[in-house]
């Protein structure tokens, strides 16, 4: 899950970035609206976390720009707790949820997950697939009574493929969703994660489509 954080305050921004990264999310941090616009025209995000008080282009203007592009990426707005006017204008501009500053990081993470879940049409935290229950928050897969632990990246890759059952995803697309701007990527990183997932969950779960990418098939009922 790749998140665009738009925040000019370095202290708040780095706190959010650290918290979300620790929770297994990939975070790109834009310091102003221009950077955010550039990021959003080049990278698909699962979620945007937006501070309303930004230099140059305000958060509300940015939100308006996002929606005018017909981009339905969920947007979580961060605003001063008592800024009711911000809330109302943000709502009409198309924000999906709010957290008031100062906020609790645990609450922010929970809201982020809920928004992404909703945008993917899931009502629960877990994903069921072919006798397995995948819990992205806990980085575990339950198969019967067996509990299998995943790394944050393995889990992110699995969730990405499960969100696209029957449709192969290219290595580049998977890399984009798993790695942020400043991260070094080994050229075979995705292959390594796929290979680890196969070792943990069975060799037939993820199929390689030569020259295209990887796919998890729609399970046979
Ligand atoms: Ca600000």
CATH class value of the largest domain: Alpha Beta
What compounds sit in this structure?
calcium ion
Average per-residue pLDDT, rounded, comes to 90
Got a strand count?
Answer: 11
Q: Numbering strands along the chain, what is their spatial order in the largest sheet?
A: 2-1-3-4-5
Order of helices and strands: EHEHEHEHEHEEEEHHHEE
| Domains (count) | 2
| Class by alpha and beta content | alpha/beta
- Main β-sheet description: 5 strands, parallel
Return Rg in Å: 18 Å
CATH superfamily heading of the largest domain: Response regulator
Q: Please count the helical segments.
A: 8
Name of the CATH architecture of the largest domain: 3-Layer(aba) Sandwich
Provide the β-strand percentage band: 15-25%
- Overall body shape: globular
Low-pLDDT runs: none
How widely separated are the two ends? 28 Å
| Share of helical residues | 40-55%
CATH topology of the largest domain: Rossmann fold
């Amino acid at each position: 899950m790749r998140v665009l954080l738009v925040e000019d305050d370095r202290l708040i921004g780095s706190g959010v970035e650290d918290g979300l990264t620790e929770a297994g999310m990939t975070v790109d941090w834009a310091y102003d609206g221009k950077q955010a616009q550039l990021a959003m025209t080049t990278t698909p995000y699962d979620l945007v976390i937006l501070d309303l008080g930004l230099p140059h282009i305000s958060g509300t203007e940015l939100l308006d720009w996002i929606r005018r592009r017909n981009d339905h990426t969920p947007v979580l707005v961060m605003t001063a707790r008592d800024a009711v006017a911000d809330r109302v204008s943000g709502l009409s501009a198309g924000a999906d949820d709010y957290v008031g500053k100062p906020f609790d990081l645990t609450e922010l993470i929970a809201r982020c997950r809920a928004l992404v879940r909703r945008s993917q049409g899931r009502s629960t935290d877990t994903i069921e697939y072919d006798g397995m229950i995948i819990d992205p928050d806990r980085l575990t897969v339950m198969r019967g009574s067996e509990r299998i632990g995943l790394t944050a990246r393995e889990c992110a890759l699995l969730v990405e493929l499960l969100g696209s059952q029957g449709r192969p995803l290219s290595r580049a697309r998977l890399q984009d969703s798993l790695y942020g701007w400043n991260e070094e990527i080994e050229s075979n990183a995705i292959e390594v994660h796929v290979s680890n997932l196969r070792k943990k969950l069975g060799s037939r779960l993820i199929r390689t489509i030569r020259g295209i990418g990887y796919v998890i098939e729609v399970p046979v009922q």
